[in-house]
């Protein structure tokens, strides 16, 4: 009897010991899972971890933007002029009616709040506050910007850098992309809906402005152009914190050195010699250089002998006619003058990551020399080698292409004059584009086309701000509706996995563990 009792006691002790181990292991696993969830939650808040299920990753910030935000070392104040709950909850829908937005855009308003809050997650230097416009606190804030018009939902961005206080106000139309529903026009109504969200571009641009010491100024010389093709480009430059002035004088006598660069787009009237002397003096800047000229041609405009002679002195040779592509695989269907342009200088960081540009109405352009009189000429982009310089005004059905020699034509030429000033090199640039459609074309909105990227990158180089910060090419964030992607079969599959297979697997696993322990 004693022996039997002792064996049973030992066996029970062994079972108890193994059970204790099992219980301890289970407890450790449970605690581990809890800790893991806490860590994931904390990291998600602190580091802005997110999963974007949209096909183009448009519902999350670009990595370039995130990297820029993390590197900011100046205290930045971001004041959202609205109570968060009311902004999301419906008041913004009411306020948007003054912009004729009558369709519900709650998902976009919620998206704006979510993305703005991420800025503080990525960098503790950025302080984000939501302040009710009816509060006494907001009254005090508004008094600081008494000369500004501040509306519900606006965002005030401010910072002090080296004793210099700067601010920028982001409005409703800066944040939201609006599309007019023309179906109501016949009834005399103007109705729009929100089609996209520009908050990432608008907010980061504002932050870049308030933390920067650099002021970039461009003068648009408009007096020689019959049409203004620069509106979209000016808007993009302003997004990148440029100050733009328009010089509409018929005759230019001088150009102030307060400008970093001048812009000439699709001129229809030639320049006088004295005007070109004024441009030349501007680029020389009393021997200090550091200035730029951006020129956009248009093959449908007259040949301008004086202006083109001036450009040739900078190594940019413009020929008569229009670039016509003979290879059908390198132009738009039935439009041989709307051609693919490709980066030529692959080692130049200005075209890094860019693959193709599309433009129509290109003038035939070549580099007149490579290096002469202190001017270095570089072709940044060109047509294919199957293009020809056709007569201006040829129609799509033109059959005379076989009579012309195929060649490669430059589409973007950089001419740089460099000298040593105060122990460092300073350059003046003349940047010539073969077509004004680099800045004014529906092609520019195609995600696969880099027209916007190259024109803003070239401007940055021309004004001497190439390495000063991030470039802002409008990124419209859209909200995807996944309803049409959820099929009946996918619903059934999800039900089978989560309501059938997963519980069965857990039950079978539990039974197996129970039997294993019982027989141990």
Notes on the structure:
The structure is a single chain. This protein has 520 residues and is of the alpha+beta class. It has twelve helices and 21 strands. Strands 7, 8, 9, 10, 13, 14, 15, 17, 18, 20 and 21 form an eleven-stranded mixed β-sheet that branches. Helix 3 packs across helix 4. The longest helix has 46 residues. The protein is globular and about 95 Å long. About 5% of the residues have low confidence.
**Rg of Cα set:** 32 Å
Proportion of helical residues: 25-40%
> What does the overall shape look like?
globular
What share of residues are in beta strands?
Answer: 15-25%
Major β-sheet, in short? 11 strands, mixed
Question: How many beta-strand runs?
Answer: 21
Unreliable stretches covering 5 or more consecutive residues: 43-58, 480-487
Structural class: alpha+beta
Compute the number of helices: 12
Average pLDDT taken over every residue = 83
Query: What separation lies between the terminal Cα atoms?
Result: 24 Å
């Amino acid at each position: 009897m004693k022996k039997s009792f002792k064996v049973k006691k030992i066996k029970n002790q062994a079972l108890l010991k193994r059970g204790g181990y099992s219980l301890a292991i289970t407890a450790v696993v449970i605690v581990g899972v809890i800790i893991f969830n806490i860590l994931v939650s904390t990291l998600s808040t602190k580091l802005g971890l997110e999963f974007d299920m949209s096909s183009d990753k448009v519902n999350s910030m670009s990595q370039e933007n995130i990297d820029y935000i993390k590197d900011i070392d100046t205290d930045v104040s971001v004041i959202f002029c609205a109570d968060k709950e009311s902004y999301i909850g419906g008041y913004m829908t009411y306020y948007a009616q003054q912009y004729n937005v009558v369709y519900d855009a709650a998902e976009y308003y919620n998206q704006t709040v979510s993305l703005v809050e991420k800025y503080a997650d990525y960098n503790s230097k950025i302080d984000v506050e939501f302040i009710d416009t009816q509060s006494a606190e907001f009254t005090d804030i508004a008094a600081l910007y008494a000369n500004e018009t501040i509306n519900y939902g606006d965002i005030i961005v401010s910072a002090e850098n080296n004793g210099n206080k700067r601010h920028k106000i982001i409005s409703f139309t800066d944040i939201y992309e609006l599309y007019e529903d023309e179906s109501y026009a016949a009834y005399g109504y103007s109705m729009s809906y929100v089609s996209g969200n520009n908050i990432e571009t608008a907010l980061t641009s504002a932050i870049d402005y308030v933390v920067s010491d650099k002021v970039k100024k461009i003068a648009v010389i408009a007096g020689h152009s019959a049409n203004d093709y620069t509106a979209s480009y000016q808007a993009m430059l302003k997004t990148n914190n440029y100050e733009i002035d328009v010089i509409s004088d018929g005759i230019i006598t001088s150009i102030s050195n307060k400008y970093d660069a001048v812009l000439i787009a699709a001129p229809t009237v030639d320049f006088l010699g004295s005007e070109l002397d004024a441009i030349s003096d501007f680029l020389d800047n009393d021997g200090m250089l550091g200035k730029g000229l951006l020129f956009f041609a248009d093959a449908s405009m007259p040949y301008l002998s004086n202006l083109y002679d001036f450009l040739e002195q900078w190594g940019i040779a413009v020929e008569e006619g229009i670039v016509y592509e003979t290879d059908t695989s390198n132009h738009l269907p039935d439009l041989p003058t709307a051609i693919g342009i490709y980066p030529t200088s692959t080692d130049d960081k200005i075209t890094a990551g860019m693959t193709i540009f599309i433009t129509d109405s290109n003038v035939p352009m070549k580099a007149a020399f490579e290096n002469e009189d202190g001017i270095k000429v570089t072709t940044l982009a060109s047509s294919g080698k199957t293009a020809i310089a056709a007569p201006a005004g040829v129609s799509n059905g033109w059959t005379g292409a076989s009579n012309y020699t195929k060649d490669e034509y430059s589409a973007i030429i950089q001419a740089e004059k460099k000298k040593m000033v105060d122990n460092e090199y300073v350059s003046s640039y003349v940047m010539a584009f073969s077509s004004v459609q680099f800045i004014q074309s529906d092609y520019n909105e195609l995600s696969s086309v880099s027209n916007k990227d190259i024109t803003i990158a070239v401007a940055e180089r021309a004004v001497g701000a190439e390495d000063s910060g991030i470039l802002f090419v409008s990124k419209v964030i859209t909200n995807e509706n996944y309803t049409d992607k959820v099929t009946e079969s996918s619903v059934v599959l999800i039900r089978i996995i989560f309501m059938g297979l997963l519980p069965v697997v857990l039950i079978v696993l539990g039974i197996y563990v129970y039997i294993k322990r019982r027989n141990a």
